[in-house]
């Protein structure tokens, strides 16, 4: 039996982060934890993208005076792409956090089911389907959770 | 039921990605563009850091779009979490002065963080680093006093002015290249800036200026984002 190569560790780590993040986004009820799962998903995708430009004997794509002339370097294009993706990810996370703060401020809850019920109730009231007085208590929602 | 289908989907995704990963030749990238850029970048752009050359020279318009996305996110956060004036008065009563060690440490850290941030921005074309990384450190330097002294705020007008000037500067440098018959946003030398010696601080033409604009813009935007989120009304959270 041979030892698994380093690529097994790299790929398992990256794909594991993606799967954990995807499962978190799908299964977690708390919207803030959902955002944290999205961060994990982004980290995994970035790692996978970086791995696509990896060379076994390569060094970082930066020319230094100490380097030999023909030294093999890693692919700089995925690294620049990931730099862009990280910065955009930070912007998206900040925007999502602002939305979560507003939701918490308005509905006093972070639970996905409660927020959805209250939001549907608000939409129904505002569109005139339900009169505000009759539907003050949210309807018992078990069917929302499936 | 929903959890089971979510687990099935995640497992399927893992299987698909693993199968794809086993097909890939690890350690031997099949992309040819990277090799050409590695060959051509030191002569064409003159940077030691080839990631910076890709980011600002070969994909400059992409970076402009990225800055636009960041600006849109910052503006949206300001729009969503607006109306900060009526809450600041209420906050001041409940806030206690932070500890002596915390406030002095933040005073000590702030100039060091500013120096490190500008160092990383100015040497972005030679060392690992650049405008984005240095800009984040600058944002932290200006956010630190807000963290340690919860009453204080940053002047939002000043942040907006720095952000606007940096963004305008980035586009002006891009238009400046067109004045010399180059494509928009291409870093250029051979003008009065001189070629510089490869590997010295004064090299790579206008690319360090572009990175300085990026750094200031990212720093101002991130500091604005952090301050806006930290100023958001938190009094309602305790009611639940």
Write the layout of secondary structure elements.
The complex is a heterodimer of chains A (146) and B (240).
Chain A: H1 6-27, H2 31-51, H3 76-107, H4 112-126
Helix pairs in contact in A: 1-2, 2-3
Chain B: H1 2-23, H2 33-44, H3 50-58, H4 60-80, H5 85-94, H6 100-122, H7 131-148, H8 156-179, H9 207-230
Could you please describe the fold and organization of this structure?
The complex is a heterodimer of chains A (146) and B (240). The longest helix of chain A has 32 residues, at 76-107. Chain A is mostly helical and 146 residues long. Chain A has a single domain, classed as Helix Hairpins, CATH 1.10.287.3510. Residues 141-146 of chain A have low confidence and may be disordered. Helix content of chain A is 62%, strand content 0%. In chain A, helix 1 (6-27) runs antiparallel to helix 2 and helix 2 packs antiparallel against helix 3 (76-107). Chain A has helices spanning 6-27, 31-51, 76-107, 112-126. Chain A contains four helices and no strands. With 240 residues, chain B is an all-alpha fold. Chain B is globular. Chain B contains nine helices and no strands. The relative contact order of chain B is 0.15. Chain B has one domain (2-232). Residues 235-240 of chain B have low confidence and may be disordered. Chain B has helices at residues 2-23, 33-44, 50-58, 60-80, 85-94, 100-122, 131-148, 156-179, 207-230. At the A-B interface, helix 1 and helix 3 of A face helix 1, helix 2, helix 3, helix 4 and helix 9 of B.
